[in-house]
User: Fold this.
Amino acid sequence: MARLIRHTDTGPVELKPCEKSQWVYACGLSQGMPLCDGSHKKARQEDASKLHVYNADRTEVVEACDDK
Assistant:
């Protein structure tokens, strides 16, 4: 069953467990979940007034429609 999950963040979340920070994805696009791989850069280019639907592997937008 398919599931649509709304992500509003356009960048990672910083965790400081020890001396070195770890960055955990929050945009929903990372291929290396749960760690950030820089995929959020695509989300920063999206029109904030639209809902963006990505393909199954989260690499490209297949639909962008008004967010209601």
Notes: The longest strand covers residues 61-66. The CA atoms of residues 13 and 19 lie 16 Å apart. Residues 13-66 form one domain. The beta strands are 13-15, 22-24, 50-54, 61-66.
